[in-house]
Every structure is written in structure tokens, then in C-alpha cells.
Amino acid sequence: MTMFIKNLVFKALNSIVIPIKKQPIEFISKILALLGGYYSLCEIEQATLKTTVLLDVFRNSFWFFILFIILIAVLLHKKPLVHSDYLGTKDIIMSLRIANLFALKDSAIVIPTNTTFDTAMDRDFISIKSIQGQFQKKYYGTDFSELDAAIKRSLDEYFPNQYKVLDDRNKTNCKRYDIGTVAKVTIKGQHFYFLAVADVSKNGKPEDVTMQSITKALVGFWDFLSKEGHTEPITIPVIGTGRAGLKDGTFENVVHETLFSFASKSQDEFVSRNMTICIYPSSLSEANVTWESLCNYMDWQCAFFSENQKHITTSNTTGTPIGKKEHVTTK
């Protein structure tokens, strides 16, 4: 309940309070426009019906009426907690969204996991508070045998024999895959991509999670999607910043790297027409970054992509290199 209230307050702050503080004149203008519109209705009523019902309502319930007008203005001024922009001149959209990852139904979803693709939740090996733990509880309850089988089928199909056998595991999976390995699980037509982000000890503790690990995981994921994806919208959380314990980067760093790596991959290969980074409200409220600054960075990245494309086109223009002369044959 406490977390629900905290998230609700955070959403209200970013979608209502901050927009009003940033644009107070526009907000006041909406209030005055609504009052003016109501007064016009009062005049129309008096001129056509010869009655004053609307005017009497205003006089008899003045403060209630004012509060009602302000509420309508707030709703009209409220900003959605999703920010989208086209990637340069391409028909590819990048988005930032503040939401619960599992409330999204019109997109494939990324589930950060460990390189052994363990699903055991006893002794808190996979925490119930992690994204993977929430996914497993929501879709599989307490029996993960079906999930384990689906992950194994996917790994055997796309990454056969691409693992190292660990000799210190007897209660958990002993096959360790590379960071960036992906296992696809489909539930009722919706695709979930388990993305290996970190190595874990035999007790489930993440080991040496760095920004290099995050970059490697993202590159591996975009590469997998470009070859084996379904050209569908894809939603990814801010990987590595929760239970993985990123040691040399910040929440902001990971969002920036996710946007940058997707844009870089999209220069050469098709990954998805719509990539969304889903941000859990409390995660952003605890991070040393604002929603506005993240949105500004994404806008800059989209604009930079267009400029970068122009530079690539220019650099590919052929001509006679400086310092070299054409060979002329004389007779």
C-alpha cells in the first residue's frame, strides 16, 4: 500500500504539479477560458430562454464551482507520462514511459535475468521484488517447470552449445551463457525476452555488474532481435539498476546507453519500429535524475541520429583523394 501511494504521488508530481509550475500562464489561461465559456453560456441562456438557471448555479455554489473549474483545468493541463520521438527521418519511434512494465499488453517485454537462466526463488535466489521474480509470480505462480522448459527450448534453438559448464553448482543451473544471450518465452501470444545481464554466484548474488556488462547485454539483445525478432514494439526496463547491483554507473547512464545503443544498431539493421524504455515510478524518484532531463536527452539523440546519417552519406561520397594525381597516358 505504501509503494502504491508513493508511486501515485510521484505520477501526480510529474504529470500535474511540475507542468503547472513550468507553464503557470497557460494553466491560468485555461481557467479563465473555462470561466469565459461558462459566462457565454449564461448570456445565451438569458437571451434565448429568458432564464438565469446557469447564473444562479454560479452564484449559489461559487466556491464549489471555482474548484470544479480548476479541476477541469488541471485535467486539461495534465501531461502524459510518456515521451516519444522519431529517430531521425526513419519511421522508428523511441519512447520513455513511466509505468508498470507488466501493465503493457501491446508490446514484447524484456526480462533481465542471470547468465545461468535460473528461475529458483527459494532462499531468495531470484528475488520476488525483481522484475524476473514479479514475472514468474504473475504468470507461473510457484511452479516454474514450464518456464524452465520454454527457456531451455529457446536456448537450445538459438544458442546451442554456447555455454560454459560450472562445477560449483549442484542445486541450480550449471550452464553459464554469455552476457547478451536471449531466451524467448511466449505466453498467450505475447513475447517475453529473457536477457542475460549478469553472472551470479551459486547463492544468486550478482557478480561484477558494470556498464560494460550493460552495453554488452544491450548489443546482444538488439542483434538477436534484428535476426530473430518479430518486428513488433519492444519494451525494456532500465536493466542492471535494481537487484543486479550496477557498480560503476547510474540510472541515468543506463537509460542513455539503452537509447544510444538502439539508435546505433538502427543505423545499420532493423530492430523494431517502436522501442520503449519503461521506468517504474519509484525507481525514478530514487534516482539522481529528472524525467525532464531524460526526455531532453532522448530528443537530442533522435536529432543527432539524423545529423549522423547526413555525415555518413557525405563521408561515403567518392572522389579523387587529395595528393594523388590521375595517371595520364601520352603518346
Give structural notes.
This protein is an alpha/beta fold and 331 residues long. It folds into 2 domains: 2-77, no CATH class; 82-312, 3-Layer(aba) Sandwich (Leucine Aminopeptidase, subunit E, domain 1), CATH 3.40.220.10. It is built from 10 helices and 10 strands. It has helices at residues 2-22, 24-48, 53-60, 62-77, 131-140, 145-158, 211-228, 251-268, 281-286, 291-315; strands spanning 82-86, 93-98, 108-114, 163-165, 175-177, 182-187, 190-200, 206-207, 234-237, 274-279. The strands form 2 sheets. Strands 1, 2, 3, 6, 7, 8, 9 and 10 form an 8-stranded mixed beta sheet that branches. Strands 4-5 form a two-stranded antiparallel sheet. Helix 7 runs parallel beside helix 8.
Q: What are the SSEs and their pairings?
A:
Blueprint: H1 2-22, H2 24-48, H3 53-60, H4 62-77, E1 82-86, E2 93-98, E3 108-114, H5 131-140, H6 145-158, E4 163-165, E5 175-177, E6 182-187, E7 190-200, E8 206-207, H7 211-228, E9 234-237, H8 251-268, E10 274-279, H9 281-286, H10 291-315
Parallel strand pairs: 2-10, 3-7, 3-9, 9-10
Antiparallel strand pairs: 1-2, 4-5, 6-7, 7-8
Helix pairs in contact: 2-4, 7-8, 8-10
What's the CATH class label of the largest domain?
Answer: Alpha Beta
The CATH architecture designation of the largest domain is 3-Layer(aba) Sandwich
**Structural class by helix and strand composition:** alpha/beta
Q: Number of helical segments? A: 10
Secondary-structure element order, as H and E? HHHHEEEHHEEEEEHEHEHH
Which regions are unreliable across 5 or more consecutive residues at pLDDT < 50?
317-331
Percentage of residues in strands: 15-25%
* Terminal-residue CA separation: 93 Å
**Rg (CA only):** 27 Å
**What would you give as the CATH superfamily of the largest domain?**
Leucine Aminopeptidase, subunit E, domain 1
Question: How many strands, what sense, and barrel or not for the largest sheet?
Answer: 8 strands, mixed
